[in-house]
Amino acid sequence: MTQSVVVQVGQCGNQVGCRFWDLALREHAHVNKKGVYDEALSSFFRNVEPRRSGEGVSSSVGGRIQQLKARAVLVDMEEGVVNEILQGPLREVFDSTQLLTDVSGSGNNWAVGHMTYGSAYREQIVEKLRKAAEHCDCLQCFFLIHSMGGGTGSGLGTRVLSLLEEEFPDVCRIVASIYPSAEDDVITSPYNSVLAMRELTEHAHCVLPVENQSLVDIVNKIKHMSYGGKPGAVIKRESTIISGQGGLSGAEKPFDDMNNIVANLLLNITSSARFEGSLNMDLNEIAMNLVPFPGLHYLVPSLTPLYTLADVSVPSRSLDQMFSDAFSKDHQLMRADPRHSLYLACALMVRGNVQVSDLRRNIERLKPSLPFVSWNQEGWKTGLCSVPPVGHSHSLLALANNTCVKPTFMELRERFSKLYRKKAHLHHYLNVDGMEQGIFSEALHSLSSLIEEYDHLDATKGTLMPDAPRLSIAT
Q1: What does the pLDDT read at residue 182?
Q2: Tens digit of pLDDT for each residue in 165-207?
Q3: Suppose 349 and one of 81, 136, 383, 458 were both cysteines; which one would form an S-S bond, judging by CB atoms 3.0 to 4.6 Å apart?
Q4: pLDDT by residue (tens digit) across 387-406?
Q5: Which tens digits make up the pLDDT trace of 365-388?
Q6: Nearest 5 degrees, angle CA 196-CA 200-CA 204?
Q7: Contact 191, 419 (CB under 8 A)
Q8: By the 8 A CB rule, do 325 and 277 touch?
Q9: How far is Cα 415 from Cα 330, in angstroms, rounded to an integer?
């Protein structure tokens, strides 16, 4: 069995990460009712001896859980969120030696996070990453969770990413990046995002871009079902939307509903690593099969269902409906419509009692309406995990390497350019040791080159050729 380590950086990264651990513990408890420490749990948790009698999840012996510790490294240059975690219901899940905080924060400045804190805490971060890796028998993947708009998430988050490449060059690096909306209240978020984009393009194996605005739209649609929406569709008022019941989180907090969607994305992408299945997909296979060109590794995620039946009283979706949902714009975690853009490759990760024949049938049904590049018409990667999410019979995560990410990147470039043309707020960055104006130009050039590569691919869409006829062998 392989193991993975989750690295949470910044306020957003730690809040999303905690929702992931909360929901993961619930899933494992639902499946593993006897509390035995098994291979499924070992993929993201390690079992340690309790420090005192009775401490931990269980003090039993003989293969039973002693005390679970998440395979995680938590980093934030403001201590508020991490302190809240240490005082909350998940406090025993995290190893206190794997937490790193400061008190002043990065002030929404990528350069402070990347240059100042990245240099000051480099050795401590590397030590914690190595320690987390040493606890793994077979380290398969690092998950990095961060936001793009702030200073610590974008700056220090991408510095951690480059350290992962230096220290563990052969271990897969998958990054969940939360992109700011156009109405973001951080004025410098376009600078931070574009500077971070260059690092993601150079150092990540795969990036799962998630837009804040898309999360807001999804949550609003779900809440609308509670207030005069479809007949018979009701959300339990004051419930933590999408999280279901029985979690450790307690009362709902701001952004919990949005964070839960991202946490569910991570639950689904890691399901094959955590549970058995008839067609398991290794995490490193995602990059191997979905990234045909270096740098074009931005995989648009879509998820269905987006809520649990504990929250929403609606009839469950049939499997075929869920496949259709996964390719509709309403279920994308970016504001994009992949059906009108070009696919380079696509992964379908299905959970529940689903047969390979169901997968093949739906792929054949959908293929005519999904424009793939001519040289990769069979560019599908599939995974089947037998354990469904709590409260559902099955679920589906689609990861599309699709040119539909281009408009989001173009909008980001435009917002960056509006500030950069006026040199607005630039002095805050240039006052940081090690930061030069040329880094801005290089980051803008990197983003423009990425957009240009997607342009070249889009230009081939009109020249898609049908499959060449097969040779007929005379008999």
Answers
A1: 86
A2: 999 999 999 999 999 998 888 999 999 999 999 999 999 999 9
A3: 383
A4: 998 888 889 999 999 999 99
A5: 999 999 999 999 889 999 999 999
A6: 155
A7: yes
A8: no
A9: 25
